[in-house]
Amino acid sequence: MFIEYDVIVVGGGHAGCEAAAAAANLGSKVLLATMNMQTIGQMSCNPAMGGVAKGQIVREIDALGGYSGIVTDRTMIQFRMLNRSKGAAMWSPRAQSDRMLFAKEWRYLLEQTANIDFWQEMVTGLIVEGDRIAGIKTGMGIEIRSKTVVLTNGTFLNGLIHIGEKQFGGGRAGEKAAVGLTAQLEALGFESGRMKTGTPPRIDGRTINYDILERQEGEEPAGGFSYTEKINIKEQRCCWITYTNPSVHEMLKTGFDQSPMFNGRIKGVGPRYCPSIEDKIERFAERDRHQIFIEPEGWDTVEIYVNGFSTSLPEDVQHKALRLIPGFENAKMFRPGYAIEYDYFPPLQLTHSLETKLVKGLFFAGQINGTTGYEEAACQGLMAGINAHRKVKEEEAFTLSRSEAYIGVLIDDLINKGTEEPYRMFTSRAEYRILLRQDNADIRLTEKGHQLGLASDARLERVKQKIKSNEEIGDFLKKLSVAPREIEAKLLEKNTSPLKQKVKIIDVLRRPQIEMNDLRCIDKVDQFLAQYDSETIEQVEINLKYESYVRKEKEMAEKMNRLENVKLSPSFNYGDLTSLSAEAREKLNKIQPATLGQASRISGVSPADISVLMVHLGR
């Protein structure tokens, strides 16, 4: 009935979809095994992609040849660029999507991808022969053989849903939990843990009084994530903002004695940076209000996502508290919020390729590694799919460094530091964030995607043209001089000091008050820039304004990357190096870093320990 596959992907969420697409597009025979074909690519929580640092990840996925950016752009109902008031390194695209269209588009793309087969059933076990993966076992007792397996189980491994004092097994509302895999992996020697996440209630939008809410419009013209597909949506859906108040908080507190989070029934650790509403009012007792975002679920539905009101309190307490929020006085719930506990496997057990150290050919991606968020899951799926394919072909693993991509930062953090709470990406986690901007992900990564075989010739040609245009505009601005009279009115308008003599126009642009469009008051500049698109012009402006900072970060990255060239033996016993600290010996033996650079980023390994290693290596 079944052929032997090159790659079997278990799970059809964001990680699973990207993993299956990547491996198949590279030429592997792929089976996507999922418990429910109707929920492939489902947005289990909020109907949005991107946000701070997450938007950069989606752009990186697109640049490498993944699908998340394309799916988002095709299904978006609103687009905003966050942090415009801050430096360009902080700008982060975010889009609201139509939840139903998003899942439909993902399934359509996967079904149109050659080399992908599908199987709807729970995977209850793995076939392991010696120290190698050999396939999967299903709930009906079917064995399907493969050369590699990618596990992307999300919140389904022994998932347990909590609403007040009620609890029941499930990986998502209305869907059963996955059982069997955790016990087998533990028997193989894997360490597991428990994590928790949550989701807010969904509301009937017809029962909300929008007249008293703050409007949050989309950005015009709407941007997007994909560098190749430019979809200019003509209309956008509005979002709204409201706030909790002391009455809401008091009502919520009446359910605290029944809260699974406070009475000890939930053992898993929740996301620190996306706390439940009861956690917020407990931790930030001094605040008398918290922001609530009202987000539509799609074009053709009245269902509303209440972002900021994640909760596992009893449903009657949720409903009463909601009705005390301005605009929600008559609100009706479609379904209550809930918390979910699930198994994860600390990612110290993985290599940079996301392959497990214990079982060759077995890869983990997504929430099974302790992350939270669609974007974090999707990029892990992409990398695991690429590396599962390369494992089959006996090719060297594909990895990204911390100076090349947020994806590289995420994976490096996971495998070197591990995580004891759901890991979420932030710009602050990236030490080279001026290099890793959302606007230049294509320049950073498309050539790598092309070399892999994921990014097309047309994509690469477009990037080369963009680089050429950047250079042309930069050269023009560096050579052209401007006289004081040509720009004095604009400088006065922008409240910056007038010129005393003729200067290169690049020096005017580098003033913080001046933007590229301000220079178009000069005819020569306006005529020259008219031949280029706004995206390229904006990127040139960023590059020129941040030129010295970019150069310093590149020098820093090159210095650190020298350590990446110093290889370490995967079987070295660090216990023999008594000059190392006890903690360093323990951590280095556990993680077995591949390079000196990786060793330097392990929590508990000090610069002095790195010096000891360098002496030992004769450096």
Structure, described:
The protein is of the alpha+beta class. It has 20 helices and 22 strands. The strands form 5 sheets. Strands 1, 2, 6, 7, 8, 9 and 20 form a 7-stranded mixed β-sheet that branches. The chain has a 6-stranded antiparallel β-sheet with strand order 14-15-16-17-13-18, with no helix packed on it. β7 and β8 form a beta hairpin. α6 packs antiparallel against α8 and α12 crosses α16. The longest helix has 23 residues, at 457-479. It is globular, with a radius of gyration of 26 Å. The chain starts with a strand and ends with a helix.
Summarize the structure.
The chain is an alpha+beta fold and 619 residues long. It is built from 20 helices and 22 strands. Helices cover 35% and strands 18% of the residues.
Percentage of residues in helical conformation: 25-40%
Q: Care to count the β-strands?
A: 22
Uncertain residue ranges: none
Q: First CA to last CA: what distance?
A: 57 Å
Q: Biggest sheet, in brief? A: 7 strands, mixed
Portion in beta strands: 15-25%
Shape: globular
Individual helix count: 20
Which value, in Å, is the CA radius of gyration?
26 Å
Mean pLDDT: 93
Q: What structural class do you assign from the helix and strand content?
A: alpha+beta
Keywords:
seven-stranded mixed β-sheet, 619 residues, 22 strands, 20 helices, alpha+beta, six-stranded antiparallel β-sheet
SSE arrangement:
Layout: E1 5-10, H1 14-25, E2 30-34, E3 48-50, H2 54-64, H3 68-75, E4 76-82, E5 92-97, H4 99-111, E6 116-120, E7 123-129, E8 132-138, E9 143-151, E10 160-163, E11 166-169, H5 181-187, E12 193-199, E13 202-204, E14 214-216, E15 239-243, H6 246-253, H7 277-283, E16 291-296, E17 303-307, H8 315-322, E18 333-335, E19 338-344, E20 362-364, H9 374-392, H10 406-417, H11 441-452, H12 457-479, E21 481-482, H13 484-493, E22 503-504, H14 505-509, H15 523-529, H16 534-545, H17 547-564, H18 582-591, H19 596-600, H20 607-616
Parallel strand pairs: 1-2, 1-9, 2-6, 9-20
Antiparallel strand pairs: 3-5, 4-5, 7-8, 8-9, 10-11, 10-19, 12-19, 13-17, 13-18, 14-15, 15-16, 16-17, 21-22
Helix pairs in contact: 1-9, 2-9, 2-11, 3-4, 6-8, 11-12, 12-16
